[in-house]
Amino acid sequence: MKKIKTALISISDKKNLRPLLNILKRNKIKIISSGGTYKEIKKLKFKCLEVSEFTNSPEILGGRVKTLHPKIHAGILNKRNNKAHLKDLNNNNFENIDLVIVNFYPFENILKNKNSHNKIIENIDVGGPTMVRSAAKNYKDVTVITSSNQYEELIEELKKNNGSTTLNFRRKLSRIAFTETAYYDSVISNYFNKITNTTLPNKKVFHANLVETPRYGENPHQKSGIYSKNTSMNIKQIHGKQLSYNNYNDIFAALTISKSLPQNIGTVIVKHANPCGVSIKKNRLESYKSALACDPVSAFGGIISCNFKITKNIAIELNKLFLEVVIGNDIDASALKILRAKKNLRLIDSSNYSFNEKLKFVSNNEEILVQSEDMDKFTIKDFKVVSKKKPNSKQMKNLIFAFNICRYVKSNAIVLASNETTVGIGSGQPSRLDSCQIAINKMKKFSNSNDEIVAASDAFFPFVDGIEKLIQSGVTAVVQPSGSIRDKEIIDFANQTDTILVFSKTRHFRH
Amino acid sequence: MKKIKTALISISDKKNLRPLLNILKRNKIKIISSGGTYKEIKKLKFKCLEVSEFTNSPEILGGRVKTLHPKIHAGILNKRNNKAHLKDLNNNNFENIDLVIVNFYPFENILKNKNSHNKIIENIDVGGPTMVRSAAKNYKDVTVITSSNQYEELIEELKKNNGSTTLNFRRKLSRIAFTETAYYDSVISNYFNKITNTTLPNKKVFHANLVETPRYGENPHQKSGIYSKNTSMNIKQIHGKQLSYNNYNDIFAALTISKSLPQNIGTVIVKHANPCGVSIKKNRLESYKSALACDPVSAFGGIISCNFKITKNIAIELNKLFLEVVIGNDIDASALKILRAKKNLRLIDSSNYSFNEKLKFVSNNEEILVQSEDMDKFTIKDFKVVSKKKPNSKQMKNLIFAFNICRYVKSNAIVLASNETTVGIGSGQPSRLDSCQIAINKMKKFSNSNDEIVAASDAFFPFVDGIEKLIQSGVTAVVQPSGSIRDKEIIDFANQTDTILVFSKTRHFRH
Asked: Does some domain include residue B337?
């Protein structure tokens, strides 16, 4: 238990100050402050001593140096039970500071509002983090508050303990304080990385905010939190049960694909993080129905993402199916009315979702695999026709569509498509031949398309057997990256079977 | 270009100081220092002014407060081209500090060496990070060095520019400086999270060191870096080509499985991050051969992890196969000689690898999904026999083995096993029924086992059809989590077919 006699307040966010000052006054706690905080406290008619008066040292450099003073930091940092420290304090006529209330210049907001580099640099707080770090280090004796959200808790604590705080309370605040200073400098560090185009620095710090706490992780015995680089996510749940960890995983997988498709026509169905049906037919109802037709069995309990506004006619169709989540690039009122009839169905508005982060990382034990995202759009320029038979524009469109989807299917991935709709997806196999067979089986089971079928492979065929299997099943055009020592054999085989063969510039493993 | 006249040095790591001091002397740069650094500089016979002399303020609180002084921070923080700043400086009789050389108390090492909490707290540096942050903020005028590794670069810069530094150089150092302070406080923040059992704090900061730069990411057009919470990885490459991003991904997947198996008998083969063969037969050669037999086609170009020491007889067998990576819990000299014959084959010694991190995270755009790892070992207590027919101990062993492997296969996952060896693995399918079929197809293609076959499913069967398919293919015992509304039907079906059915306590989705 530590009695508080003196508080130092230096805050950028001046919200909710009055009740805090009231409790300090009631406990006869002396207040030291400076600059805008000092003015605000005086405006609220509370007593307050200016830092410069306290330290007997002027505020200089336009405020850059005011609290960086031994009297302030000795007051915070001295160990109350250490006689040598006490002697130092007395010799220098210093006194204890028991409570530090600081929040920093809002560097993150300044960044978000696209200010000039000079203004951004000016907003790097030096004095604030130093006081917070001094107080947090000396938490055995000092209480440190780093956010206006903590005032209520502090007020409760002071009431409960007659102007004192407990060690547990101070330790918790210290933990939060060091997280704040780490977070703050992580934002600065990442800003500098960005302006200097430093993608993979020798040391890297990531920061994130807890934006959602699902009931559990991938499985009920695992804890989980959804974090964001921002303070909130740019998707919005507008109806239904709480989202689970697996929902989030599938939603992000679905949105990544949706965003890669031409705007306002794409439907993506995801199950277990893999797409099981995608279509970009221009008629949106057809787009939805076609995506579903690719594998209506797997779609059961799945996640549907429409990159267009969901309207009544789509909602009526969606309602026929059991789905976990429906994502719309907006959902209109009439559609919402229909979809809301299902109490548990989670509805997500993705109209504000955009892909802003270029790096992707995944941890494994103490290691983190970091890489740039595989996001570029394909065009005809990325494809080289290597067969004698050349694709017409419709075939080329289908090949581009199929190859784009293929990059989002877990490797080894094979996608069969017809009419800019998937008709068979083979995912997650150690053998490419098996992925071919799975895609073909799906097509045989569900497709009644009489149109031409094209195929895409995320990496090269190591042998002729895979492409042979596809051609035997009716595929007339294939796109794949090159790179096998048997590329020539594969081209020959395509020519022998009058198949269109296209080599893509890029490979697209995804695990 | 900024001429350096005064340098402030405060370092915990006192390596390589002499050449640095030589160049400072040659450029007539005044040196200010304190404590151990001051003593070291004097010992090396260089001139140096003590901080307390410079500030005319004593070092107090056993060194806790020495550089937290306006004269120090105004000297660093003033904008050289700002007249008001210059006036402040002159009025207070302060002077410029143009170069700040600081490295922090080695908080991370102190942690690693399991010191007492008090000693750990004592090693939180306050003065150092403050000087670094002041200098880094004012990088337009000030040069900041945060590691002895940067001395050589600084010396070069000063030589090249006759005692000055360029803006670009200072900006780079500033970027590194803020990364250092962020990293430092992230270590402290995570330490406090750990001692207070805070798994999912509202704000979270991660820190990592670049330990490897593969040529590219999952694909050649993606950049990549392998980071670690430590300064090096606890696996060691002892031979072969540079590891690729996909190698690392597969290696970590393989080691996670290896570590879950009984020690010194397990072989795991991984391809595209999924296991395609696992065995824990007691005879190690048999363990290897059996794991391979599960899917010898997929094993081609795969990654093999033996959680035992690889000896000559195993190496001879391994050499018959084309593999990307061989991991051994040590590899003995005679085996090494054989395996090294293949120039490109990557050999990894995993004998120092251990699983220390309990949290796992994966990013998706600006969001990060965090969850605790799914790592607990299974025992018979986690299983509940729900069929009339009860498993004997051999069957139970196989069920536990199969269910453990199942958790590491991408969902939906089905694992068929016999004799504590996988004989069919179905992975990565949106439909559980399809995963059953894939596992069965593998078994039919490659297995010639006459022993009983057991099956494990990572989540419950939603319908009877999946389990029916398994039983028709010769499976006599099945383990699965419960939870379907058709659990009763599935139990009835097991009883009708005289099948052993076991419900596990936990589900094991993995995506």
From this structure: yes
Q: Is B434 on the interface with A (CB under 8 A)?
A: yes
Tokens of B23: 């160049």
> Residue B114: what pLDDT?
78
B50 interfacial to chain A (CB closer than 8 Å): no
CATH code for position B335: 3.40.140.20
A26 and A122 assigned to the same domain = yes
Instruction: With beta carbons less than 8 A apart as the criterion, state whether B398 and B383 touch.
Output: no
Helical residues (DSSP H) of A236-392, grouped into ranges: 245-260, 284-294, 296-299, 312-318, 333-339
Range of the domain at B444: 374-504
Q: Which of A154, A8, A138, A168 is nearest to A77 (CA)?
A: A138
Of residues B14, B85, B137, B389, which has the active-site annotation? B137
Which is the catalytic residue, given A14, A85, A137, A207?
Answer: A137
> Do residues A482 and A385 both lie within one domain?
yes
Same domain, A259 and A405: no
- For chain B, the residue count is 511
Q: Which of A61, A210, A438 sits opposite B78 (nearest CB)?
A: A61
Contact B435, B455 (CB under 8 A): no
**Residue of chain A whose alpha carbon sits nearest to that of B188:** A178
Ranges under pLDDT 50 in chain A? none
Please tell me whether residues A296 and A165 are part of one structural domain: no
Known catalytic residue: A444? no
User: What does B362-395 look like in DSSP terms, one character per residue?
Assistant: EEETTEEEEEE---PPP-GGGEEE-SSS---HHH
Q: Which residue among A210, A357, A438 places its CB closest to the CB of B365?
A: A357
Which pLDDT value is given to residue A1? 87
Distance, CA of A337 to CA of A340 (rounded, Å): 5
User: Who's near A165: CB < 8 A, 6+ residues apart?
Assistant: A1, A2, A4, A143, A154, A157, A158
Alpha carbon distance, N-terminus to C-terminus of chain A: 53
Q: Which of B7, B55, B57 is nearest to B32 (CA)?
A: B7
Domain stop point among B137, B169, B195: B195
pLDDT at B164: 97
CB contact under 8 A, B208 and A69: no
Nearest residue to B10 (alpha-carbon basis) of B125, B118, B138, B100: B100
The Cα–Cα gap between A317 and A283 comes to: 14
Residues in chain B predicted with pLDDT less than 50, given as ranges, are none
Cβ separation of A371 and B186 shorter than 8 Å? no
pTM of the model: 0.94
Mean pLDDT of chain B: 96
B290 found inside a domain: yes
A239 noted as active-site residue? no
Measured in whole angstroms, the distance separating CA B43 from the mean position of its chain's CA atoms is 41
Which backbone phi and psi does B254 adopt, to 5 degrees? -65, -45
Rounded-to-integer distance, Cα A137 and Cα A144, Å:
10
Does residue B485 sit in the same domain as residue B378? yes
ipTM: 0.94
For strand A30-33 and strand A6-11, is the pairing parallel, antiparallel, or unpaired?
A: parallel
The pLDDT of residue A402 is 98
- A225 within a domain of the structure (yes/no): no
CB pairs under 8 A between A and B: 454
Interface list for A 203-232 with B (CB within 8 A): 203-211, 213, 217-230
- Within an 8 Å CB–CB cutoff, is residue B274 touching chain A? yes
CATH code at position B161 = 3.40.50.1380
**B364–A253: do the CB atoms touch at under 8 Å?**
yes
State the total domains in chain B.
Answer: 3
B334 CA: distance to closest CA in chain A (Å): 31
Please tell me whether residues B397 and B498 are part of one structural domain: yes
Tell me: do B81 and B11 sit in the same domain: yes
- Nearest residue of B to residue A510, measured between CA atoms: B218
Whether the CB of A58 is below 8 Å from some CB of chain B: the reply is yes
From B390's Cα to the closest Cα of chain A, the distance in A is 27
